[in-house]
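From the shared-data thread, chain only:
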Amino acid sequence: MRGVHERPAGLTYQPELIDDDEERSLLTALDALDFHDVRMHGQIARRTVRHFGFDYDYGSFQLTETEALPVALHWVRDRCANLAGLAPEALAQALVTRYPPGSVIGWHRDAPTFGPTVVGLSLGSACLLRFQRGSGKDRRVYELELAPRSGYVLTGAARSSWQHSIPPVPQLRYSLTFRTLRGARAGSDSLAG
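Structure, as tokens:
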């Protein structure tokens, strides 16, 4: 990537957040989920998703309550919350993403409706997590290889000022992404219409 290499402030990386046996068990559980298409700008992405806690509409950018995180996945949320230094309940939204070989996710920042902390767990195939901010001679870039079973946290500038993307994955990959919510939603049990 072209630009000045700079590690984003607020990026934490933890290899081996879970062990091999935990990953195998988790992949079996994730394989059994019913995934949904992602439609953005009239196009259907190759990756598929499943939301827990709050569903996110990629067209309207709105959150609506949906089914709770399955009890079988609470230990993963607990581990990710511990990595981020948060109470597990603070991670109110969970996104499970299935990336078939060749899948990508383009440059973006997680929607502003989500709060200041994003925590991820990478499973299956390794991948690159790329970062960028600025343009031209002011462009800053960074790449981090996410190994299977590794976790990461985006806070501060890494969450708010940098975009991130994932180039094509070589093999099947899953990610679990846990997010805090912004404002009044963060402490409420339900959303007002």
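DSSP finds three helices and 14 strands in the chain.
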